[in-house]
Amino acid sequence: MGRETAKRSIEEISWQDAKMNELPVAKFECVSCKYSDYRMSTREVGELAPGECPRCHGDMKVVAREVPQELSGQLALVAKHFDIKDFVAAKNRVELAVAAPNAKRSFRSLLGAAKKKGYLPVMREQEGELKLLMVKSPRVKKENVLINLLLFLATIGTTFFVGFYFLFGNTLYAALFSGSLLLMLGSHELGHKIAAWRNGVEATLPYFIPFPYLLGTFGAIIKIKSPIPTKEALVEMGASGPLFGFLVALPLTFVGLKLSNPALEGTSPFIIMPVIFVVLQLLAFGHISAAFTSLNPLAFAGWVVLVITMFNLLPAGQLDGGHVTRGLLNRENHYKLTRMLGLALILFGWFVPFLLIWGFFIFFIFRSYHTGALDDVSTLSKRQKWLAAVTFVVFLLCIPIPTG
Ligand SMILES: [Zn+2]
Ligand SMILES: [Zn+2]
After folding, report:
1. Average pLDDT rounded to a whole number, residues 83-108
2. Which pTM does this prediction carry?
3. How remote is the CA of residue 59 from the centroid of ligand 1, in Å?
4. What is residue 401's three-state secondary structure?
5. Could you report the per-residue pLDDT of 109-127, keeping only the tens digit for each?
6. Are 157 and 208 in contact (CB under 8 A)?
């Protein structure tokens, strides 16, 4: 520890000294297109770097050897946490080739320090080299909380309306349906919000989506407004919503089933049955029932949330399950998985038409790479690997099984 601190302060001193004049930085300008940048170079003023213009492949010429204040500040910041091997600084961004004995730890301390100065570091691996990109932190726009509130109130209205007119035809049951559904969806979003707080990610309050038909809502979303720092944060952000929603849905669904009366025959209100819903029925009735003489709204709302949880946990694109898998897989593999899953669901849709919508959704919406965390290099720690495993188990429990 002591040695490390000592080494760091020596580095700091050498960079302070370097700033005084010896820093091998040169300002280059393209002879043809006038593009200019700063590079780590020992070339003298007037020397040429043939064909090195990244814009037109023309010749670059050293025009000065001074370092702008802001750039020297950024370099000093990075140098406190990494060894700088090389860099190019153009407008608004510095690209560096770096090295560190523990890149994960170095990145975390750099991230904290850079944020305070208004910069955002991004770490990637390219051809076996560790690359850092320093950009200005994007400004986060303030959201109008009134919109969240109005949508929430509207969703209370539409879920009650649908519960009353289309599902149960009774005020108490409509209120129970609306209240329990919003409680479970709200817990899901609260889970995301807590993970965002924990990881210093800016996220909005939930936007509930009112819909005056079917279930009265399409659920809720929160918008993530600042980049996710680490793979750990990515897994937590994705897993926490479905896990919170699932944990609240379990007891509510069970109580709802206990208050329902299964029928021996009749048509089923459930187009598909998640594994856990079957288990809860076995616990409540001792058998599985497709039909009900009376169905308590808590059981129905719980079933809705379990089905939504299964969809959210599909390991694809920007879905909650997609974030978790992106913490485990690199960009290319995550993309392949998303495409294959979309295609598989479309094929399965031949047998289970309901899956077709999900298949099309995944196949046509998620057509680009998942950017991943700012540190897309370090491996995931054990704790979050466990969290991902638990989330996968919940996903399996929510998968529908044939019960006929
Ligand atoms: Zn040029
Ligand atoms: Zn979610």
Report:
1. 92
2. 0.86
3. 7
4. coil
5. 999 999 999 999 999 998 8
6. no
